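dumping the sequnces here before i forget
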Amino acid sequence: MIMYNKILTFIISLVLLSSCVENRDLSKNTVVAHILSNPDGLHPYNDNSVMRSFIFEHTQKTLVKLDLKTLEYIPSLAKSLPEISEDGLLYHYELRDDVRWDDGSELTAKDIEFTVKLQICPLTDNANVRGNYSSVIKDIILYPENPKKFTMVAFGKNVTNPSIFSEVYVQQKSHWDPEGVLNDLTFKDIHSPNFKEKKEWSDWFNAFNHGDNRYQPERLVGLGPYQISDWETGSYIIAKKKENWWGDNDTLIYNQNYPEEIIFKIIADESSVFLSLKSQGLDATNRVGTSKLFKLQKHDYFNDNYHSAFLDQYSYYYAGLNMRPDGIKRKEFFTDVKVRRAMAHLVPVDEIIEVLLHGQGSRQVAQLSNLKKNYNDTLKLIELDVDKAMQLLDEAGWVDTDNDNVRDKMVNGEKLQLSFELSYMSSAASKETALMIKESMWRAGVEVKPNPMDFSLFYKNAQEHDFDMMLGGWGGSASYSNPYQLWHTSSWANKGSNFCGFGDAFSDSLIDVANAAIDPEEHRDAIWQLQAKIYEDQPYVFMYSPKRKIAIHKRFENADMYFEKPGFVLHNFLLKDSYKNQTPMP
Amino acid sequence: MLKYIAKRVLIFIPTLLAISLLAFILNISAPADPVEKLSNTADKEGAANQQSNASKKTKQDLRKKLGLDLPIFYFSFGSLSDCDTLYKVADKDHAATLSELSHYYGNWEDVSAYFHQLSNVQTSHSSLDLEEIFMMNTDIDSNPLYSKNEINDVITQSNFEVNAMMETANPSVLESKFNSLDELYSNYSFLSVVKNEFDLAKVSYEKMLSQKSSWKSYVPQIIWYGSKNQYHFWLFGDGKLRKGLVRGDFGYSYIDSQPINTKIWSKVWISFSFSILSVLFAYIISIPLGIYSAYKKDSKFDRISSIVVFVLYSMPGFFIGVLLLYTFANPDTLRWFPISGIQDPTLFNPDWSFWEKTAHRAPFFILPLITYTYSSFAFLSRIMRVGVIDVFGQDYIRTARAKGLGEGKVVMKHALRNSLLPIITVFANIFPLAIGGSVIIETIFTIPGMGFEIYNSILNSDYPMIVAVFTIVGFLTMIGYLVADVLYAVVDPRISYK
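..and the predicted 3d for all of it:
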């Protein structure tokens, strides 16, 4: 009897426990999208996280936008792309007539002027991106006879001028500054090197920069089809579809608003994402692990419920070589281009892709992804070739004179061994990469000493050129990447992101031409030549671009996937009729 | 007893001030610079911000805005060679170089003049125009004296060397750089504008060397800054936005400009709940386990339970956490508990009552709670076991048994109370742990607690947050020890604070 009671108690406990989890109702017109972490805020200017940009796709609008299909810029709030003056300094825009703020008032050019002032004013807390805009936009000219028209005056000709507004989220002047405190703040004041802030401006900006404007849902207003309704910090953000939104009848896919609600659910751990997909707890993710997605794809229940794919993207990883060491702290290992090319022949990139990424990565030959239209396809991949590497090292004078299997050379009267540090940010993947490089290079008599460190120290050393070889990576997108920051010689001298010391007058002139060229052919030619120059000089051993892993639930139509992040358009997801009447899944 | 408690509470105040000051100074002195982090361009390829004097000005403005352009404290201890306005130097590396130079040479005025002149050398590079230099060095037959590449290389090299000189105080390195730049400027006449400034810098350098008075580094001095310092503003407010710690305002986060109070209080309840529940379950399981192990010392139960708790103790938290997920939140095995978070966004209603919210959240807490708690079993149960074994050997236990009392009464009434003292000591630690959280467990289960928040603050040098947490943890530690002391007196009547 006692035994029977114990068994009964156990079974009842199991039943109770098994009812701890409620099954998701898949007939609800709600999209649950996965994000990796909490955005630092959703302020229209003062945050720069990837999560923020992703969420702003649904709640904010810009004048122009990058079309994910064609990868060309298309008008969004503007009627058309800007008319450009012959000198390339004036950009004429006209706004759409049908755009309305949430209070019903029309979008006007005054809102654009206000938006730009905030974007470039030194009093806004956006120091890390302000320079991108303040160096381009000189002034905004309004036309009293037409409140929809305005002209952007640029400081100089630059290929990015027509698309400068693609990441400037338009804000409502009457909402933020109903009393017109900033009316007398001019662009001349803003650009003045001796900018003097008035007390009323300071007070206004202190209130504007306050954390509440980053987190309080009711303050996070925009022209997009969705409004943030709930934000549980660290857990999820809910965006609700707006009633009577101005773009309800628009046919552009970026103006669709099919889901009633979009929930951005934060899941930091890879295993949790894996289990969430297994239990259909997510509708869309672009952050699932490679091996996890492979495991899922082996099961019918996953493939029956999800579209999934590995897609190319624009970010890449590289091994950087210090081309201009000081000769004291860092020795002259890589000053000779033959040595750098030898290193490229010794890094086992294909093996790294196979082992670490399970084959889900693409080789990269220069700084531009082969997805971009100006990619120089005449450049050939540098294959793993130990013999070729040894020959190049011999030619460069690196020979093993003392039979210790490490090559050496007399440099500045001193015998120097080809034994150097490989610095990288501590992570399992980087460690594996470093060890594979070490093993491969040893075959050619090159000694590599892996040197892991935390991000802050790694970045500091990179900026101060205090490294021999380093493993790094850059993000990217389909939009034009200004090569100045990474490849101009001044970016090396001033401790910018040209860590390796690449460049000379010729490459600098190519960068200047590429940036200033409004003519597409001239621009393309300069970019092609720059790629060739970087390929020849080999400041980096370009390694690979990891593929983006995307999974989208099959209960939605329009589940298209794109190379450009985020990889899908959530508000275009249309719930299939077959799911609308479904009962909760077992 | 009340008098004792009051006395202890009064001691809190100077102790807290000391803790907060220590936290403040340690943070500000740490190598990382929040201004660098906040003003860095996005590190994606092609972020267009040009490295120029514009970004230096941006950093200066940012430093002023955050109040980091003020001295740290009311005064500082230094030597006669120290400058009292070094805190105004925006660039931390330059400030460090200046400090080193002034210590080495002792004459701050000469050091300052030298460094100022080096800045002029640096600035003079901006007047060099590649095209102009190329044209000026091309003869009438269009034969250039220098190629553009050569000109560019020389200018870049010069710029870099001068920048490097501004970040080193090492005399031999400086000597070597002066010599190499001398040679460079003599070989390339187009660098004359830079050379002029460089020659003045050399003169300043030589003056600094000749007037070296390093004895000043051995004469101490106290540099007084007055109340316009970072600590004062942090404690009492700046009369503008910040009210100061004394009025319960911890300031604003550098990361997202949110009030620190809001950030902490929105998350601390989660970490606190986990801590309290974890301690409760740990004690509920460990105390009886420890008592029974002691009672059945060296029996099969004692040996097996010891092995089990030590095996559990040896397994890392991230391993157990993931194992629990794959076992109890997996549709392929047992789907008993939710996978992540503390509530389901598709079901949760913010207008629910407290009990409805608790009932909804309870299943989300189970797996993280187990992960949080299991490692305490070994430690607590062993302490309990040792304490009870020790007490069992006492005469009064033998007397109790001799009197004919049942084993239950002997253990629970006589032995238990006397073996609780070590347990109470451990209990004091739950207070600071309440705010600590656990980064690993919060990441695995996506719990929005304090652990990850603190980790993020440290990575981003969010001084206000770090100092606030440091101070609160110090305060809670003192509370914990006070509670422990009071409980000692409650449990053991031999302990008195009169």
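Chain A touches chain B through 90 residues (CB under 8 Å).
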